[in-house]
Amino acid sequence: MAFFDMSPQALTEYRPELPEPADLDDFWARTFAEHAASDVDLQCEQVETYMTLIDVWSISWNGYDDHRVNGWLLLPKGAEGPLPTVIQYTGYSIGRGMPFDKTSYALGGWAHFVIDARGQGWASPSLHETTDDTHGRTGGAVPGVMTSGILDKDEYYYRRLYVDATRLAQAAASHDAVDASRIVVAGGSQGGAMALAAVSLAEHLGVSIAGCSAEVPFLCDFPRAIGLTDAYPYKEVADYLAVFPQHRDKAMETLSYFDCAILARRAQAPALFSVGLMDTITPPSTVYAAYNTYAGSPKAIEVYPFNGHEGGRGYQVQRIMEWLQELFAG
């Protein structure tokens, strides 16, 4: 894929005038009050992985409407808490997968939580249970979820997922191994969106987030993304509107409550973003829409001019590890 989006200079200046729903804060306050008010009830069961440097627990907690959400907790073997902590959210179609697929943060000496995104997991085999969605979608079922409930903000899929993600930060803060003052949320693509949502919404649960790592984040600047790229998952929305053009205004109104380029205006923690300038899945301008409006500081963005949705790959992992060392030391 060649360059197809704005020039690098235009990207740094891009701040779309995305209309913010007048009741956005009330909507999220009501969401957490009505659907996330119970005890988070983190449960941990240690599992055998045959790794000698990391201990692993299969975990679950109360997500949206007390639906049990699954995940992993990885700790450096023998480490004494409380530890700085990284919460990792997963990309579209990816569940928690196998615990040995995700070891970088625990090997860095930190506690590491991984979410199992409800109703997803069709691209990541796991020996353990995937998380079903409460609205009829079985965990691991084939795609997609982008238009699930799109005509009603109360029923939209990402309302449930954002609550699950934010409650995982609440659950992590309750664990004895975790330093609740040093919790970082992180992820790529959909995981980057969940990280942005969690850092923007955590105050509703009284959780402090120390930093946010958002790699090539998804679910940002919906109006531009849906019209700019014909790559999935955004194209799920275009496919829907091609069949039901009469629902365009209502669908876009719903999406505005979940647009991370809007929610990021509420974030307060330091952040590290990344972007690939040849990325057709999360187009560069949509990433910059979130980065340029992200309210926390300090913030930085790593730019990979000749990369697509893979972003910086190992180079970005190295950059994140360096950033975390500096952040946790501070």
Blueprint of the fold:
Elements lengths: L7 H6 L10 H12 L7 E5 L6 E9 L5 E9 L6 E7 L14 H4 L3 E5 L41 H17 L4 E11 L1 H12 L9 E5 L6 H7 L5 H10 L4 H9 L3 H4 L7 E6 L7 H10 L5 E6 L9 H16 L1
Parallel strand pairs: 4-5, 4-6, 6-7, 7-8, 8-9
Antiparallel strand pairs: 1-2, 2-3, 3-5
Helix pairs in contact: 4-5, 6-7
Kindly describe this structure.
The chain is an alpha/beta fold. Helix content is 32%, strand content 19%. It has helices at 8-13, 24-35, 104-107, 157-173, 190-201, 222-228, 234-243, 248-256, 260-263, 284-293, 314-329; strands spanning 43-47, 54-62, 68-76, 83-89, 111-115, 178-188, 211-215, 271-276, 299-304. The chain has a 9-stranded mixed sheet with strand order 1-2-3-5-4-6-7-8-9, sandwiched between helices. α4 (157-173) packs across α5 and α6 (222-228) packs across α7. The longest helix has 17 residues, at 157-173. It is globular and about 55 Å long. The N and C termini lie far apart (40 Å). The mean pLDDT is 94.
Give the end-to-end Cα distance, rounded to a whole number of Å.
40 Å
Shape type: globular
Mean pLDDT: 94
Low-confidence stretches: none
Class inferred from helices and paired strands: alpha/beta
Tell how many strands the DSSP assignment holds: 9
Into which percentage range does the β-strand content fall? 15-25%
Rg over alpha carbons? 18 Å
Report the order of strands and helices: HHEEEEHEHEHEHHHHEHEH
